[in-house]
Amino acid sequence: MIRLENLTKHFGAPSDPIVAVDNVSLEVPTGEICVLLGPSGCGKTTTMKMINRLIQPTSGKVFIDGRDTSEVDPIQLRRSIGYVIQQIGLFPNKTIEDNICIVPDLLGWDRAKSRARARELLGLAGLEPDLFLRRYPAELSGGQQQRVGVLRALAADPPVMLMDEPFGAIDPINREVIQDEFLKLQREMRKTVIFVSHDLDEAVKMADKIAIFRSGKLEQYASPDELLAHPASPFIENFLGTDRALKRLRLVSVDCAMAKDFVCATPETAPAELCQRLKGARVPAALVVNADGVAEAIIDGERARQAHAALADLAEPVRATVPVTADVRQAVSLMLAHDMPVLPCTDEAGKVCGVVTFRSIVDSLRGGGEP
Question: Do 65 and 145 belong to one domain?
Fold first, then answer.
């Protein structure tokens, strides 16, 4: 756990100080990711650097797992905290293996143990150890180098990690991949992470809690969903943007947003019967499913009222489905791309478990607090 108590930093002459961070207090529980977010110059990077004492606080305290960091030798403190920066900072004359092992070597780890750790981490990050251990940074792409930078920070198994815009210089496609890989590692390792970002979408995706700064002060500290649903001030509301309801779609799983009382039919169902079943239903269309519970077609009420035709002639084929494990943003994208008012939601076997409709999405957002 990381706890900041009244953390303050002044620069310049004591008689005319510049306040960079002003009386910030917050607590990050063990195993959670806290993203520090805000405009340029708001104090988020200065706050993070006071945690490992790259910048000395003017006043206030930092506690890691209950221990006052001001009582720890700063060099030892930094070796016990993982640190990832946007510029990566790999040593160009060292192999990837030796780069990852920098801190374990400084801590006096047995060489066999540290090299085994490097191999293990590369495997976890999807980089084949036998291909990458002996390479040099110049032989890797920018995205691969950034992944190695994260692995180096994890090498000595620190309980705390500080990350200063670590993915900001990576192209959007690789950024998504690296973010996903880091979240996968985090689910396994459960580090306590302070993550500085300027990207709201990244913060919403990565964070358990978001701390929004303004002119050195902490304006709001909340979960992404609470922040987007209930901004604490006009400044935060403006900072989040008018599309904050859309940003919340990433936070809602399809499983939580789908309607489970959907209308089903088989190819043999009479159109008149289906039309009757759709009356009063909360879904605008029915699914035609096969014997295995797989959705094959969609038919709305207007088509079902053409009672003299067979369902097979009236229904439209299913053009897309969404896994129940996906987020609602993916579901909305598919619904818009394929003009589908009803999107089947499927389990691992492809069986329909429910449907997403625009009505069910609105209801799910209201369940977390209407923005």
Answer: yes
> Is there a contact between 136 and 94 (Cβ–Cβ < 8 Å)?
yes
Torsion of CA 331, 341, 227, 193, to 10 degrees: 0
The residue out of 235, 250, 265 marking a domain boundary is 250
The amino acid at residue 173 is I
Structural domain range at position 181: 2-250
The number of distinct structural domains making up the chain is 2
Task: Establish how many alpha carbons lie within 13 A of residue 74's alpha carbon, considering only the half-sphere containing its beta carbon.
Answer: 9
Domain co-membership, 64 together with 95: yes
Q: Containing H/E element for 358?
A: helix 358-367
User: Is the CB of residue 213 less than 8 Å from the CB of residue 36?
Assistant: yes
Structure tokens at 366: 């209201």
Residue 285 and residue 208 share a domain: no
Same structural domain for residues 241 and 297? Answer: no
Q: Could you tell me if 36 and 93 lie in one domain?
A: yes
- Residue 119 belongs to domain with CATH number: 3.40.50.300
Residues 353, 212 share a domain: no
Per-residue pLDDT of the chain (371 residues; tens, 9 = 90+): 999 999 999 998 888 889 999 999 999 999 999 999 999 999 999 999 999 999 999 999 999 999 999 999 999 999 999 999 877 789 999 999 999 999 999 999 999 999 999 999 999 888 999 999 999 999 998 888 988 999 999 999 999 999 999 887 788 888 888 898 899 889 989 999 999 999 999 999 999 999 999 999 999 999 999 999 999 999 999 999 988 888 889 899 999 999 998 998 888 888 788 888 888 788 889 999 998 999 999 988 777 776 566 676 778 899 999 999 999 999 999 999 999 989 999 999 999 999 999 999 998 887 654 43
